[in-house]
Amino acid sequence: MTPDSPTRTYRRLSIEERRSQLLIAALELFAHRRPEDISLDDVAERAGVSRPLVYRYFPGGKQQLYEAALGSAAEELQQCFDEAPEGPPTRRLARALDRYLAFVDEHDTGFSALLQGGSVVETSRTTAIVDGVRRAAAEHVLRHLDITTPGLRLRTTVRLWITTVEAASLIWLDEGKQPDAAELRDWLVEQFVAALVATAARDTETATAVRTALALETADGPVASLARRVLPVVGDAAHLL
Amino acid sequence: MTPDSPTRTYRRLSIEERRSQLLIAALELFAHRRPEDISLDDVAERAGVSRPLVYRYFPGGKQQLYEAALGSAAEELQQCFDEAPEGPPTRRLARALDRYLAFVDEHDTGFSALLQGGSVVETSRTTAIVDGVRRAAAEHVLRHLDITTPGLRLRTTVRLWITTVEAASLIWLDEGKQPDAAELRDWLVEQFVAALVATAARDTETATAVRTALALETADGPVASLARRVLPVVGDAAHLL
Lengths: 241, 241
Hints:
The structure is a homodimer. Chain A is about 70% helix and about 0% strand. Chain A has about 240 residues and is mainly alpha-helical.
């Protein structure tokens, strides 16, 4: 950073602006390095302010700053899930996943460090923030399936798909972001369709939700494409029917 | 425990027998209470020996005893996966899952505490033991699919199903072991079939593995049953084909 870069100027900021500036600096650092490798000096330098000023805003030090940055990242992530309840459900899911995967791409190291656990800054509060995001994700999915009070089987299927998305994101980061985000997104949508259809085979509530969702899908959409590619794979198994 | 119960007698045991006796006592305790709620006194009392004797075998105290007990549980768990490579693959998977779910049922509290993380006894060594079990599970599944060097897509699908099994087990414990273990087992098998078929739709290696596996399935088996129950659910979606 050069001495005259914009963030180094000490222009007067309101309390909220200053707090937000420090959180942005912290998020940028926590995104690409593990929390244990970041000091308050790094945050101060990144924001172009003094260390005491960081302490004035976050008297709890790095732990408080980390939790505030995580809370702010969690809000950003939850905004990824917002999607109008219109059009084929798999299209909505694909758009939300695009935004989610862009977030994962942007916060790669911090995302891995947070979710792989064992970090020095992990507390019951950070766990609660992460669980809140998972719960919000599941609620969004169920809302798009027009379900308000899901039974155990449907609820579990959705929760497990959220777990799959999270674990797949970690594997994706671990594999150097291979395959590309668009393929990962399409594959995650297909895995959701497959999981839901399999649960529908033993749960009437899920079967109704699947029928309703399928009626909104189109012949040029992801479900139709999946069906056309699945049929040749299972086509030889006529002995099972 | 009464004073004259067998484990209270101080009969001479070999070093290995004594060590094994202490591990069994520790495992019984760690299975049903969180590690932080167990003291070495509890272990000594359970095994019917003195506290110094426990320390003689485990000079590292509770941490060392916990890791040794976990290693012993991990071996037990890996034995659940052993299954002859004969017959319909879903039957083999169902039998391995039966043994796995019996293990989860038996070690319920310890299983949850271990996998939900944040425990005081969690270290890089305990994480490595758990990861070793996950890796072994994935290798077993791939071996039954006749795959030795899986590509990224198939490898990821299997790893994510292992994650699903683990997460489903935690939800199952959390929901008071509902639905019953047999239904959970059948549902996990069906979810695996669905995930694999969906991946086969975009990956030739997986498609070959699925075709080979389907040829070994029978008309009275789990895949046929799933197919018969899926068809009515998707039957109305002819507009997609």
